[in-house]
Specification:
binds hypoxanthine; TIM Barrel; 2 domains; globular; binds zinc ion; alpha/beta; five-stranded parallel sheet
Length: about 350
């Protein structure tokens, strides 16, 4: 690939808006299993690496939840934040919105919300001490397979933790098939009343009807994945008009069989339809491409121009939930390094 484009992708300050901190690396899975003395189907680090093997969203979620069951203590949650921060510095990511799903990943095994949030807060403190220029915010994902009443109760508990960590939005994840977004409309309405921004996983394994259902019942500020909007021109028009950003995750979609190759990923049609999109890694330990890797692969596969790559990078700053306070850093870098 063009070395100038590679330099932009690797060296330009970046933001990432769709990243699940719950999905730990095999190394952390191994470390937590050892440290917490839990019986798991792994005996070595090699086993932990080989364990991440799946074909479908259901298989992926089962494997991810098994690895997550090794996470128990505040110390573990703090290590997860530090791992995230180290990775940000390696990739020149200066801003990341980090999702966690308390209900699906921790609550059902008796890990308290206090433990999770205190651990995250401690990790943030340590990360800020080690690195000056990183900004991490949190998105609390609702488990869409839980009842809306349980999710409302969860949101009511969550708000008191807004002082402890920068909690900016409520999202939604887990199995989309059989769990349409509208069932969680009351929970999202409550989250909005509390002043949270709203986002949610739709249009990943379910087609455009899942996105229509979400938009008709929930005032979403962004959509996670949403890639299958590409199958419906009317929907593309609406998303473009309303400037609802899709946080695309190409490697994730290919790993989970939404598309069978990088060539099929519909980035060109989405961008040509004027829908706002940005690129993300979703769960990099499982999908093997980080943000930089996803951007490089997409730029290479579709022979993206410099301005298209810059648009993707800038969109993550323009549409983040903290306002565009970091955009000037990016533009300063581009002004200095790119002759346009
Ligand atoms: N889809 C649904 N739930 C998830 C995903 C995903 O891609 N990643 C982590 N939880
Ligand atoms: Zn996701």
């Amino acid at each position: 690939m063009d070395s100038n484009l590679k330099k932009i992708i690797t060296e330009c300050p970046k933001a990432e808006l769709h990243y699940h901190i719950d999905c730990i690396s095999p190394e952390l899975f191994w470390k937590f299993s050892q440290r917490n003395g839990i019986e798991l189907p792994i005996k070595t680090l090699r086993d932990a690496i080989d364990f991440y093997n799946f074909q479908t969203l259901d298989e992926f979620l089962t494997i991810m939840l098994t690895a997550i069951s090794s996470i128990q203590t505040e110390n573990d949650f703090s290590d997860m934040v530090m791992d995230c921060a180290n990775d940000m510095v390696t990739q020149n990511i200066i801003y990341r919105e980090v999702m966690f799903d308390y209900t699906a990943c921790y609550g059902h095994r008796g890990v308290s919300l206090n433990t999770v949030i205190n651990g995250f807060a401690e990790g943030l403190k340590l990360a800020k001490k080690r690195y000056e220029n990183i900004d991490i915010r949190f998105i609390a994902n609702l488990d869409r397979t839980a009842s809306v009443i349980d999710n409302c109760n969860y949101i009511n508990k969550l708000i008191k933790f807004r002082e402890e960590i920068p909690l900016i939005a409520v999202g939604m994840d887990m199995q989309e098939i059989g769990h349409p977004a509208h069932k969680q409309a009351d929970a999202f309405a409550l989250a909005k009343e509390y002043g949270f921004k709203l986002t949610g996983h739709v249009g990943e394994v379910v087609g455009p009807e899942g996105i229509w259902d979400a938009l008709q019942s929930i005032p979403l500020d962004r959509i996670d994945h949403g890639v299958r909007a590409v199958e419906d021109d009317e929907l593309l028009k609406l998303l473009a008009e309303k400037q609802i950003l899709l946080t695309l995750c190409p490697a994730s979609n290919i790993s989970l069989g939404v598309y069978s190759s990088w060539w099929e990923f519909p980035i060109k049609k989405l961008m040509n339809s004027k829908v706002k999109v940005c690129i993300n890694s979703d769960d990099p330990p499982c999908f093997h491409y980080d943000l930089t890797g996803n951007l490089i692969k997409i730029a290479e596969t579709f022979d993206l121009s410099t301005s298209e790559v810059i648009e993707l990078i800038r969109n993550s700053f323009i549409f983040n939930f903290a306002g565009n306070e970091h955009l000037s850093n990016v533009d300063a870098w581009l002004d200095k390094n790119i002759a346009i």
